[in-house]
Amino acid sequence: MNARGLGSQLKDSIPVTELSASGPFEQHDLLRKGLPCVKNELLPSHPPELSEKNFQFNQDKMNFSTLRNIQGLFAALKLQMEFKAVQQVQRLPFLPSSNLSLDILRGNDETIGFEDILNDPSQSELMGEPHLMVEYKLFIFMKIEGLHVVYSHLFTII
């Protein structure tokens, strides 16, 4: 389920797998990942789970196709450009962003759902280091693998 601000919070934050040990001697993290089960990785745990994960994407797709059929191609393109512009404006990665303007464009500003109450990113149990989160968003985060330092972004010299 994608919460209003959680999507941007998770996209901008550093994945836990980036900071964990990797390799042949890695231990399974029971606290974060639960008990290991191959079946859960291959299939959804519940039949409507896949539909619920893609609900907002399918809803936007249906709204754009309806708008394109009624008002023409450029109305849908204009609305998509507004969506992209609104999604790019956010706070620093370690601060929760409410995405109020995106909710207004989608019409979710007047509705209360489970994502408003149950999955609030401002009440998250995980808090990363702010400097690392900003570096990760700007693609200057360094990963240390063994004795070599690997930069995830190459700087160009003009």
TrEMBL record:
Keywords: Chaperone. It comes from the Eukaryota. One of its GO terms (biological process) is proteasome assembly. GO terms for cellular component: cytoplasm; nucleus. Belongs to the POMP/UMP1 family. PANTHER family: PROTEASOME MATURATION PROTEIN (PTHR12828:SF3), PROTEASOME MATURATION PROTEIN UMP1 (PTHR12828). This is (raccoon dog) hypothetical protein.
